[in-house]
Amino acid sequence: MQKDASAQIDLEDATQIFLEAFQKWTDADCGDGKHPRIKVVNLGPVACNVHEYNKKAGNANVILFHDKVWPHAGAGSTLALTTVTYNVETGEIYDADMELNGANVEFTTGIDNVLYDLPSIAAHETGHFLGMSHSADGTATMFADYMPGSMELRSLENDDIDGICAAYPPGDPIPAECDPTPRRGFETECSPPPIVAEDGSCCATAPGSPRSAGTSALAALALALGLAAKRRAVRARP
Ligand SMILES: [Zn+2]
């Protein structure tokens, strides 16, 4: 989490809401008591308050609120935006950042007088963070539109569960040495200076360098959660 969180919701509460949102995805039931083979680790608050991916320096996969000005298009209709940077050949995710529109959106967190339900929005955006795209299924949490006042997106539906289980199929336990450090190190400041290799050759293996280390082109995919233009399909409840 970005350390300032929002005037609407403090760092502690925001952290808890997003931890719970990620847990919905990691706890998804893939059948036979198995779960998606992915682990989410909170490395602590981050100072940088913009979305960025540094090709030659450390990074953070950050969740941040824009309280003053929404810096993207659609300020009046966009609730949140998650940008995922990935290798277009392998699909490996290099960086993910989530931005929430605190400047134009009044978030609520409880179950009474719901306006823009942050736990619902968090469930949707954490799906993007893990690589999920939008679903055409109107009942899915990954459907692209949100109806104000709704808490429907809080729970994953079959389409969401099918998706995350296909993307991260269950398998052997995740080894203890699995390292959650972002690419080129965990960096909480914005745009840090490039990492210089010990032999003085800067960044020889940085992704984006021509064919170095077998890497290839990057792409950034930004996916927004917007206001629903029409009613969502009625979700079947268990
Ligand atoms: Zn979305």
Automatic annotation (TrEMBL):
Pfam families: Peptidase_M10. It comes from the Bacteria. GO terms for biological process: collagen catabolic process; extracellular matrix organization; proteolysis. The keyword NADP does not apply. Keywords: Hydrolase, Metal-binding, Metalloprotease, Protease, Zinc. GO terms for molecular function: metalloendopeptidase activity; zinc ion binding. One of its GO terms (cellular component) is extracellular matrix. SUPFAM superfamilies: Metalloproteases ('zincins'), catalytic domain. PANTHER family: MATRIX METALLOPROTEINASE, PEPTIDASE METALLOPEPTIDASE DOMAIN-CONTAINING PROTEIN. This is Matrixin family metalloprotease. It comes from Polyangium spumosum.
